[in-house]
Amino acid sequence: MTTFDDIAPQLEHQAIEVPSWAYGNSGTRFKVFGSPGTPRTVEEKIDDAATVHRFTGLAPKVALHIPWDLVDNFSALRRHAEDQGVAIGTINSNTFQDDDYKLGGLTHHDEAVRQKAIDHHLQCIEVMYATGSKDLKIWLADGSNYPGQADMRSRQDRLADSLQRIHAELDAEQRLVLEYKIFEPAFYHTDVPDWGTALLHVQALGENAVVCLDTGHHAPSTNVEFIVAQLLRAGKLGSFDFNSRNYADDDLIVGSADPFQLFRILFEVIRGGGYEPDSGVAFMLDQCHNIEKKIPGQIRSVLNVQEMTARALLVDREALAEAQQAGDVLGAHETFMDAFYTDVRGDLAAWRESRGLPAEPMKAYAASGHQETIEADRVGGTQMSW
Amino acid sequence: MTTFDDIAPQLEHQAIEVPSWAYGNSGTRFKVFGSPGTPRTVEEKIDDAATVHRFTGLAPKVALHIPWDLVDNFSALRRHAEDQGVAIGTINSNTFQDDDYKLGGLTHHDEAVRQKAIDHHLQCIEVMYATGSKDLKIWLADGSNYPGQADMRSRQDRLADSLQRIHAELDAEQRLVLEYKIFEPAFYHTDVPDWGTALLHVQALGENAVVCLDTGHHAPSTNVEFIVAQLLRAGKLGSFDFNSRNYADDDLIVGSADPFQLFRILFEVIRGGGYEPDSGVAFMLDQCHNIEKKIPGQIRSVLNVQEMTARALLVDREALAEAQQAGDVLGAHETFMDAFYTDVRGDLAAWRESRGLPAEPMKAYAASGHQETIEADRVGGTQMSW
Amino acid sequence: MTTFDDIAPQLEHQAIEVPSWAYGNSGTRFKVFGSPGTPRTVEEKIDDAATVHRFTGLAPKVALHIPWDLVDNFSALRRHAEDQGVAIGTINSNTFQDDDYKLGGLTHHDEAVRQKAIDHHLQCIEVMYATGSKDLKIWLADGSNYPGQADMRSRQDRLADSLQRIHAELDAEQRLVLEYKIFEPAFYHTDVPDWGTALLHVQALGENAVVCLDTGHHAPSTNVEFIVAQLLRAGKLGSFDFNSRNYADDDLIVGSADPFQLFRILFEVIRGGGYEPDSGVAFMLDQCHNIEKKIPGQIRSVLNVQEMTARALLVDREALAEAQQAGDVLGAHETFMDAFYTDVRGDLAAWRESRGLPAEPMKAYAASGHQETIEADRVGGTQMSW
Amino acid sequence: MTTFDDIAPQLEHQAIEVPSWAYGNSGTRFKVFGSPGTPRTVEEKIDDAATVHRFTGLAPKVALHIPWDLVDNFSALRRHAEDQGVAIGTINSNTFQDDDYKLGGLTHHDEAVRQKAIDHHLQCIEVMYATGSKDLKIWLADGSNYPGQADMRSRQDRLADSLQRIHAELDAEQRLVLEYKIFEPAFYHTDVPDWGTALLHVQALGENAVVCLDTGHHAPSTNVEFIVAQLLRAGKLGSFDFNSRNYADDDLIVGSADPFQLFRILFEVIRGGGYEPDSGVAFMLDQCHNIEKKIPGQIRSVLNVQEMTARALLVDREALAEAQQAGDVLGAHETFMDAFYTDVRGDLAAWRESRGLPAEPMKAYAASGHQETIEADRVGGTQMSW
Prior knowledge:
Chains A, B, C, D: This is L-rhamnose isomerase. Chain A is of the alpha/beta class.
């Protein structure tokens, strides 16, 4: 029987990267709702990320998105972050918002557009050198809407070439992290729709090329934790984009749609060594707080990951292995569920307090008056959005 | 054996309503791409609809969306349309783009917001009286993103009340058409997610309340033609929003993703009497031409409907019934497929020509220079978008 | 704040109907595995159901399936059940295993086959009179595999007629419960695929015709709790067939695939009055224990329903309503989740003990030696199967 | 503009492998319907396969399933096939119908069971040597039904080891073909659920290990033709199991559910070189004729593949490439659709006749009296089934 005290030490090193864009306004194709207190500058986004870290101790890094987070002086931005107690994490490229990318970027049939997309990634790598970021994450919006519109095969060849040229600019400490997504914004085919495709590309690039698994980027019914186990076994799981979905890439708060799935995913992460401090697996959020407040939305999210990590650590793996080895279907399942059903919230609150953190971060944030302050202060300017 | 000549007379009365918003810019949450020649005014959108009709003879009506198509003088707009050879069709309401509607409209827990949403529909009804439109189509973006966020049950009660108050303002010739959608922009629940829910509401309203079936608004694997048959049998199929989907509500060109599905749907429409001139079923498009040119995109769409209607009419229903009655699985299926596999394009071209229309509308449009003209003329102003 | 003591009284009247067929062998089209201790007679199946009730206090009724559970003397079977401490519940008809039903039963194009299917239901009604059962549950395997194979529309008409003739034989105390299912064994269309279709048919029959919701019979991504709310609002939710699914109609142990979904469903049941003692909603299991032991599989299942019912009852509905009314998205969601995350297992164990039941039924069953006894005793004969 | 005459030569080498099991009875978990004329012996199954080839010229090989097709003398069986004009194709293993395989075969935690499963494959390899078959196809039913039931990670390790030991027994001319499937008969996880997993395993084995793509084994919404393109690009597409699905692994007649998908798949096959005579891609059917007659069901199937191959060959690839390179979305799509919409049936009938085959194989088979003959002759004995 594993107890909270047994697992508490393993909670120490948990670190979740939050995305700068989660603090800006987001929405659906139908409407992006504004909300009071939304950052107007990259610095204010970093401030919000730092606030999440201050209340939870869980979010020491913030991921940037280029060009959304372009600033003149990235060294200054890095110092600003450090002053707030956080570091710059993954750099995310963006080849989906320029008119030239209407029919693709790194896969584009027009060499000029493709070169532009490659150059954009080289610029991202410069940002990495300036900020100390180690990961370049590439999510492609590339794809097509109509059968016949594009030649899927040659696009793969061009993608391979583009990635190689980008990868060549990374040093050995830096990583290229390739994300896959089944659909959206393209609606017939996407050029990296599944983990198999991402795997083939990073295999071709080398050791420091890995895959990013966004939990909302799969077909309905996909067993996501299996893919986690598989990528870990292949040594190719680079990072997570955590969020929840019920239908498509809904980008909801992680753990809100199916907490048991989050538990299963984290169990496989632990099982496969991905939770070890040196595993190289980066835990990131990628969410859209379309209707809820953004800072508490992020606090809720990192807490959900922490709570489910604790539950997953609580699985009595010895008893589990024994039941599995005995072919005891119900017994093994029950051992697994026991951990999931264990309410760790009280223990976690005490543990947080013992480390100088608020016992209940959501309540502490609400009571802090911080939200009211930023809503009052951040008036004028243009709210950041995507 | 049914021949093209047998069915040609039935093609005469085919009429497809095109949506004004198809001519404006649209896109995904990631990007709305602009395109040269896009209308800057409601009048220019109507001109584009009229162009589609001129080249195809298939699109005599254009649906409006309020407030996107709000003008000061709807009588003048009506005359403008008539001068171009088209009429104003369905009026679509919009309760998803005002900040007040963040958590709902006709279902909102705040009576003030709900009243505002109701009032918006009364304004739409005024537009109907001014334009001669007979149908008020209501698609609700209402729903919630998180379990517990909203009380689904009381929202149904409020929706029923809202609809009743709107319906009360319609005269006996006018119809309330309620659309359903499984998700988006809400990602946990929507308040009218399926045809069963829409049915219950229109049953409560009365004879002149009917359901709109958007072909892209269902869960994966849903047999859409079965729902068509069912709604026709219940006397409650009011209209179609035609489009194609591969994943979610992709709003692609109708017939482009699965032409056989379009064939099956049109077969059930015909089978159930929905293609009869007096059936009351309105055939509408609801699409987004995110990356393709909009006018030829619409021409392609109405042609797809026409071609599949012709194929569906070609089904030898006598032979089919005989095989079905004999329990001849392969024989009945083959009779059905025979019609689908028949290439009607040559016959249709000749038939169009005989009626003074271009034999091949896509080629005729391309050759006409119209696209170049509007691209050159429509410079300055603000492109219409949603 | 709602406590376990507040809700304990409401647990008293919980009653879950177990299916006789869960104790027989089941499997997939690939293989039905036998298992030691499987009943050879209807009586032994009832004994197993009674065992589940003895260990849990939750399963006072057992549903029968005709012809699987045909016996010469149903009065004797009823007495046998009563002697074991359980009652006969719902009678399930079966029109999918006779060669005549290859192309349908109640919808069949051949009047002789259709009459045979109707007559089978009249026989079921006789069993109801003999056993005191109040519910006739009809699940149709009817459908087609190929487009064109069958005339979907006339099948609806024949179904309506068949149901009317069956319904006419029920007395006012008895109910016709119509189940829907999206697919399987038919793979193109099924004749009652969704709740909307089931609703139309039971509306046509009258007050004592209601719908059965099997939690595994929906398209991927369907919000099942919404349908629960909707059917309750319409007064047409007759019963549940509980089970779990990941992909299709997997018929797994209820709550095993997505415990949070079970929580949400039970919350809507309670919210809509369906958990009231006089609600008329019957809670049934419909599962296949293909690889796990059957009696403990059923014990696990009824416990899962009980545990999630307790959690759902724990929702602080006053606080929830307040947060909902305030438009507090995160607050309302958190109130909802608080109940789900509360570990009720200890309280439930104590509560069971206080009522003379085993604190931990799974352990008590394992320790009882009952499984070993039936495995030793039930040798020879033919194991019941479907 | 590509014409039928241009492509006719490429139709010459088309060869589709038919499965012996398609001629036996099959069904769902609910019922396997028998049908008159069903083979009682392996030889009769081969006779039926030969009949399909005689009427179509398309099916020169028949795949076997071990142990379903176990005979004492495989050399004699091979001669029997050759006498009928067909050859023995792929050998399919089966580790899902023995009681020992309840919890797995090649992945089993019990070394004795795993060894048995490996040994079964060695037996299959012996059959390959005896029959001249070059392909060993492995589809695993392995998986689990409940989270926690099995250790997914160590099962991968055992699978890799099992495959290596099997692969070691093949000679350089023989291939190991690994099939993937998202679910069924396992309902929580399967050990080879997707092409990525299959790819990793065959990569580890070597050149003569390849992947089998069953068109019905994917999650809803999966773009199957993309996977075809991807596996061809990686040099790892070994064979197809063709069939149709609407929901799960429905195993319907290929092309019946979505003919346009079949067209798109065949286009990518051609585009990627998979249709070249020396490509090594084997085209197989894997279907269940649950309710339709089996021989004409197979004839219909191979004709569907032929008709869609012809349409796919008709794509004007030069015009297509030009439109794609010009970024002409609608033009490229239209060029693609032009081929799909072309009715090739008349040309194919003439072409068949010119080669001494029946112009219309379905009609010819119906007129031949063959079905009546086997129904009259094949009385007594036990119908083959699975």
